[in-house]
Amino acid sequence: xxxxxxxxxxxxxxxxxxxxxxxxxxxxxxxxxxxxxxxxxxxxxxxxxxxxxxxxxxxxxxxxxxxxxxxxxxxxxxxxxxxxxxxxxxxxxxxxxxxxxxxxxxxxxxxxxxxxxxxxxxxxxxxxxxxxxxxxxxxxxxxxxxxxxxxxxxxxxxxxxxxxxxxxxxxxxxxxxxxxxxxxxxxxxxxxxxxxxxxxxxxxxxxxxxxxxxxxxxxxxxxxxxxxxxxxxxxxxxxxxxxxxxxxxxxxxxxxxxxxxxxxxx
Length: 266
What we know:
By secondary structure, the protein is mainly beta. It has helices at residues 165-170, 261-264; strands spanning 24-25, 31-34, 48-50, 56-60, 71-75, 95-104, 110-122, 125-137, 149-160, 176-187, 198-207, 231-232, 239-245, 250-253. A hairpin with a 5-residue loop joins strand 3 and strand 4.
């Protein structure tokens, strides 16, 4: 089924998944700088964003032969000469935006990211998701081939649960199962031997209480009033510290991440 981006997701995740916030430091001289982007037409994802003083701007490259899009860092007064934003392709399953934060590194390079948004639409429901692909960029503002960290930033899903008037009564009018997920990247406190350590915090929930994508909602007992609430999923609401693994050339979590694809994959 052809995938469509659901614009509602664009406002569901915050900082280093969404709106810019004041600069955050780790006490070791590193700063995660928020980026500001001009309004994009028709609610589209921003393809250029700059620091408030316009010292630095992050832009996106055109997709390569494999469809990958990477960030570019340019001085603010040179941003207009950078490549044009990725072309819109109505057959594409992905859209791309600038991650609204920039981490300058002590070696003169940067960490900058691309938000990759996917979605699906079907009868009676639909879903969308945003993934961060974080890249290391050299001092000249050019990104490496592969991301150094990939993590879900947000997702939203609705699945039809009523197919008759009887279902509506049993569900007390709550005729969709809903699932939500949000993730946030921040600097971890303290110095690190290589690149700065990062923290990843997530929240996952389902509505109404007791629903699961691995179960059949039509076989559930009738809902009570107390079931019409969001239920936090403790397993997929967690915090992890990521450290840079020089041998692997990527960030690795301090402990394995749980499988939260029920929330993060539309």
